[in-house]
Write a structure and sequence with these properties.
Distance between the termini: 18 Å
CATH architecture of one domain: Roll
Order of helices and strands: HEEHHEEHEEHEEEEEEHHHHHH
Oligomer: single chain
CATH class of one domain: Mainly Beta
Largest sheet: 6 strands, antiparallel
Structural class: alpha+beta
Helix content: 40-55%
Radius of gyration: 25 Å
CATH topology of one domain: Pdz3 Domain
Strand content: 15-25%
CATH superfamily of one domain: PDZ domain
Number of helices: 11
Length: 404
């Protein structure tokens, strides 16, 4: 019953978070296509049997499927599996439209649009995700402010990476990995990803700047939101008294700059982590799938509710934390969709690049093969991430306890 209650408690936050991110992504494609006069057949959020659907005056079918883990915009003429017809498909489509007396609509069909217009439509989805994240970060910076904690060393753990590197009590860390920053949260994010990797630190000590190089050690840590995580640890305790925090208020321009910076940090962190996975420097056991995202959303909601003195505070805390989670996931979705893998937006852009150079679309058979390979890669990654989620959630341990 406990696990059932936990699952139900996490369903609504998960649907809200994923639904918001996917809807904005697909709206990016949709609005760009509309702006360029493209004929659209369907706008769908979720897959499977429709729960809700209606057709508007322009002929677009709006649909909500029962599986809220995806979405799509179907343009008029989308027929083959890759949604990119080859020369023969285009000839046949043009002939059918003329034969049906709809030759005047050819210019509205997505696949007859110039490459630059199709590129804009495809890019609009990821760009919409980045704009959503920047907007959320900027809005939070303007309304809530930013709590900044200068990273001053209060204690150094014996035999830790910091002790080996020569850190001392009273050091003020003002830069990491070549970047000037003294914000504890910013420096901590960098350290957590750099286990086993030599990292440079700029430290202010006694009125002068010195350079130290430390190699954070991997450690397993329990986290109230992400459960058990393998993170890099430096081995220092920062000053974290209430009076050490500095609340920074941002105006509109400063807030937008903050939002751009936060979004860029998430992208660069993702690229760095993926690079370390590809080169075999770290395990991929921290990758999360839908179950992992649902678990994070559930824990964020639970922590927001616990300790709230009243209902308005509880709702406010929950909304604030879930909106911040939406921003983080939106950046990840936007970035992942730009990868040059057929079936993702980046794969479509790759096909368009070929078409721009060769002056003709890639053969349908090649596109279909690429689509299948891309689909296999994406599904394989999702299965692997789901396996990580199941391990992290100890589902197999639960089953063992039920049947032992």
């Amino acid at each position: 019953m406990h696990y059932l209650q936990s699952a139900l408690f996490g369903i609504l936050p998960f649907v809200l978070v994923i639904g918001a991110v996917i809807t904005i992504h697909e709206l990016g494609h949709f609005l760009a296509a509309k702006l360029l006069g493209t004929k659209i057949d369907r706008f769908a959020i979720g897959f499977g049997r429709p729960l809700l659907q209606r057709v508007d005056r322009s002929g677009v079918q709006w649909r909500v499927g029962w599986m809220p883990i995806g979405g799509y915009v179907r343009f008029a003429g989308d027929e083959n599996v890759a949604s990119i017809p080859d020369v023969e498909d285009l000839k046949r489509m043009r002939g059918e439209l003329i034969a049906e007396g709809r030759g005047h609509e050819i210019g509205r069909y997505f696949h007859f649009k110039p490459i630059w217009q199709r590129t804009i439509v495809i890019l609009a989805g990821p760009v919409a995700n980045f704009i959503l994240a920047i907007s959320i970060f900027a809005l939070l910076a303007m309304t809530m402010g930013e709590n900044v904690l200068p990273f001053r060393v209060m204690a150094v753990r014996p035999h830790s990476a910091a002790a080996v590197a020569g850190f001392q009590v009273g050091d003020h860390i003002v830069g990491v990995d070549g970047r000037r920053t003294d914000d504890f949260a910013d420096i901590q994010r960098t350290i957590r990803m750099r286990g086993g990797a030599p990292t440079s630190f700029t430290v202010e000590r006694g009125g002068r700047l010195i350079q130290l190089t430390a190699t954070p050690k991997w450690e397993l840590q329990k986290d109230p939101v992400a459960r058990e995580q393998r993170v890099g640890v430096l081995g220092v305790t920062p000053a974290q008294r209430a009076e050490d925090y500095i609340r920074v208020r941002h105006g509109p321009l400063g807030a937008v700059a903050f939002g751009v910076r936060q979004t860029w940090d998430v992208v660069t962190s993702t690229v760095y982590y993926i690079g370390r996975i590809v080169t075999g420097q770290v395990n991929a056991d921290q990758l999360r799938g839908p179950l992992g995202i649902a678990d994070v959303a559930k824990n964020v909601t639970r922590l927001s509710v616990e300790g709230a003195p009243d209902v308005p505070t509880m709702l406010g805390n929950t909304a604030l934390n879930l909106v911040n989670l939406i921003a983080l996931i939106s950046v990840s979705i936007g970035f992942m969709n730009l990868l040059p893998v057929p079936v993702l937006d980046g794969g479509h852009l790759l096909f368009y690049a070929y078409e721009a150079v060769a002056r003709r679309p890639l053969a349908a058979k090649v596109q279909a093969a690429g689509y299948r390979v891309g689909l296999a890669l994406v599904l394989g990654l999702m299965l692997f991430a789901t396996w990580n989620d199941l391990q992290r959630l100890r589902v197999f341990h639960l089953f063992g306890g039920l049947f032992s």
